[in-house]
Write a structure and sequence with these properties.
disordered N terminus, 704 residues, 22 strands, 5-stranded mixed sheet, 12% strand, 2-enoyl-CoA Hydratase, Chain A, domain 1
């Protein structure tokens, strides 16, 4: 809360920026408008131009420079607003449960009590506990991306803020603390209401929300400490602590600590994830850079943290008479608001400060504070961001589907609603060259009834390099989905394969090898053209079978997403080289598509075994490149930038060997009993339920 006891006189400098009280008040009011919330930096830059410190109408100072912000947050002469300060200036604060929670916690306390409260939080959150729980946290992140992607597929549009930005951070906090996942909606609601206590000047209505949150938490905490322990789980850190700590006073303080920690952790991480996605959507060049440089993800995320600045503003007061950098006098007890978001874009500290440049040399910024009140949840926020953004960018090419929604709060970025949809597919421009020849598309008669006219730009590029044929999928804007045109072209490559080709390398342009089949095309055919639908399903299986039985050895260079039918194409290859960024997934059940007898199922079971195949199909979890290597799904993992060169190197090694010896060996392997039947022998049982599922998708889309 700001100090409203001082009412300074302000003047206007006719030759410089307007620093009058009226103008300063108008700037603060602008920050609270929808335009100001969408772009607060226009206001921050105007405040910066007024000088090293700007006097607020209520008597406080506001600073925007990196140097002054760092000094106030870390200097020994500054204090966070605490209970003694409020009691002297705002004695009625004790009537507000929300403020009482704040000042019972480490976040709202100064030395000497602060150190003990901060140490007590180590019982629940510590660097070691986060390290131990990292695999669970990563799985949780992937689960939420899966759910978000499923909604996006079904509805066409989805609110990333509501489905991921709000819920994922709370799910991670529940994992760390051992709180029940069923409580996530209640915990999110309480935390959002309590966050009002951090704002510059919360209205009576918003303070009433914070107070209500305090009362709700008291009831919730009382239930947690008295209810049967199994609800918290046997391995719950909170449950173990409650089993060893019975002092009611200690438990009450711990309850306040946890409440504020959960609230602050949620607000900072929510803002980082939701606004971070907005920034990456608006800067697709930076999104591509992040995907192309997985080794630089930590530095890239640090730059994203700087630009987003989840915590926008913090408040401190002077412990004694002092000066701000620049010689501005500050009286003991006088409040200074530090605009962290402006400090993180200080042109005196950062070149082109408003630009998101993920290649910027890593440098610790002030987004999570500095000094004794440094954000305890910063490692969690960074872990979630470094896990989530590369995965989302690999799997989804998104654009905004509407305006971004922001909270009224000035203390946090407050990005709440992020409506998104997949970018429309555009016609891809394939590479050309003297050595390139296009795979001829089969005629509609050859494909059968229901054929779709092939696009003007063919979906594959074929190059001959001595005895090695290189086949490239060239639909990066469509994530190289296996639609009819692509399957037809791949089939044509195999039917016209010269006898003197000893190895075929399969690679793909763009961010992903192949994200699967074209469900939109299949859905339309299942609804409008049953014969065309059946022909396309059979074509897909026939192409995979032909790829597996190709007389030449096939080598796949895999990167990005290798999903669904793309996974089937990969396992149909004899050898598979994976980039470090490759992720393998069978997501059919996630999007309500059944998996039946197929070439992919046969090959996947043969390569990695029935147990691992069952887990991939039923859970739909992403399998990393290293996990794929361990299971036998791939044969080598190399740095992403080397995957194409390594696949070609393996193909050339094979091409130098005796052709008959290699082909007889491959034919012998094909006769092993693990392989499934030819496509003509497959059961029809799968096609009907698949068609029904696809028709439901189309009906749902039409209903929208």
């Amino acid at each position: 809360m700001p100090d409203r006891t001082v009412t300074p006189d302000m003047t206007t400098d006719a030759e410089g920026p307007d620093t009058s009280r009226r103008h300063v008040r108008s700037l603060i009011k602008r920050l609270a408008t929808p335009e100001g919330r969408a772009d607060p930096h226009a206001v921050y830059d105007e405040l910066r131009a007024m000088g090293p410190a700007v006097r607020m109408p209520w008597g406080a100072w506001m600073v925007t420079s990196h140097g002054a912000t760092h000094e106030v947050l870390s200097g020994s002469g500054w204090r966070t607003v605490d209970a003694p300060w409020r009691t002297e200036r705002q004695p009625t604060w004790v009537r507000h449960p929300g403020l009482k929670f704040l000042h019972d916690s480490a976040l709202g306390t100064n030395p000497p009590g602060h150190a003990g409260l901060r140490r007590s939080l180590g019982s629940f959150v510590s660097p070691q506990s986060i390290t131990d729980l990292t695999p669970q946290i990563v799985r949780t992140v992937h689960d939420y991306i899966d759910e978000f992607e499923a909604v996006l597929r079904t509805d066409g549009e989805a609110d990333f803020g509501a489905l991921v930005g709000d819920r994922l951070p709370m799910a991670v906090l529940c994992t760390v603390l051992g709180l029940p996942r069923d409580d996530i909606p209640l915990l999110c609601e309480m935390s959002r209401m309590l966050s009002n206590v951090h704002d510059l000047a919360p209205s009576k209505a918003r303070m009433a929300q914070a107070d209500r949150a305090g009362k709700l938490w008291n009831a919730y905490w009382e239930q947690l400490v008295t209810e049967p322990r199994p609800r918290l789980g046997e391995d719950s850190p909170l449950g173990r602590w409650l089993d060893t700590e019975s002092d009611p006073a200690v438990r009450a303080v711990a309850g306040s600590q946890l409440n504020v920690m959960i609230e602050a952790g949620l607000e900072t991480t929510t803002s980082l994830l939701s606004e971070g996605l907005v920034q990456l959507i608006r800067r697709p060049d930076q999104a591509r850079w992040l995907l192309d440089h997985p080794e630089a993800v930590h530095g890239g995320i640090e730059e994203l943290v700087r630009v987003v600045s989840p915590v926008q503003l913090m408040t401190r007061y002077a412990a004694e008479d002092t000066e701000l950098p620049g010689g501005v006098p500050v009286a003991a007890g006088q409040v200074v608001h530090v605009v962290v978001a402006a400090a993180n874009r200080d042109p005196e500290t950062y070149d082109s400060p408003h630009d998101l440049d993920l290649s910027r040399p890593p440098r610790r910024n002030l987004a999570f504070g500095v000094g004794m009140h440094y954000c305890l949840g910063a490692p969690l926020a960074r872990l979630e961001a470094t896990t989530l953004f590369p995965e989302v960018l690999q799997r989804l090419d998104l654009e905004l589907a509407g305006p971004v929604g922001y909270d009224e709060t000035l203390a946090f970025r407050g990005t709440r609603s992020v409506p998104v949809r997949r970018r429309p597919r555009r016609a891809a421009t394939a590479a050309t060259g003297a050595a390139a020849v296009r795979a001829a598309a089969l005629s509609a008669a050859a494909v059968g009834a229901g054929a779709v006219t092939a696009p003007a730009v063919e979906p594959v590029l074929v190059n001959r390099e001595d005895a090695v044929l290189v086949v490239t999928l060239t639909r990066p804007d469509g994530d190289n989905r296996l639609d009819r045109a692509t399957l037809t072209a791949l089939g044509s490559v195999l039917t016209t394969l010269p006898d003197d080709v000893d190895a075929v390398v399969l690679r793909a342009e763009g961010r992903h090898f192949c994200v699967g089949g074209d469900l939109d095309e299949l859905g339309r055919l299942a609804t409008d053209d049953p014969d065309g639908y059946r022909n396309l399903v059979e074509l897909s299986d026939e192409v995979l079978h032909a790829w597996r039985t190709c007389p030449a050895v096939t080598v796949a260079a895999l990167h990005g997403s290798v999903s669904g039918a793309g996974l089937g194409l990969a396992v149909a290859s004899d050898l598979r080289v994976a980039a470090q960024d490759a992720r393998f997934r069978a997501p059919e059940t996630i999007v309500s598509i059944p998996v039946g007898p197929s070439e992919m199922l046969d090959r996947l079971t043969t390569e990695i075994g029935a147990g691992r195949t069952r887990a991939m199909l039923l859970l739909g979890d992403a399998v990393s490149a290293e996990q794929a290597l361990e299971s036998g799904l791939v044969h080598a993992v190399v740095p992403t930038e080397n995957v194409w060169a390594e696949a070609k190197r393996q193909a050339r090694r094979i091409a130098r060997r005796d052709r008959d010896a290699v082909r007889i060996t491959k034919q012998t392997m094909a006769r092993l009993p693990h392989d499934g039947p030819d496509p003509a022998e497959r059961s029809d049982a799968w096609e009907a339920p698949l068609a029904q599922a696809l028709r439901r998708r189309v009906a749902a889309a039409d209903a929208r």
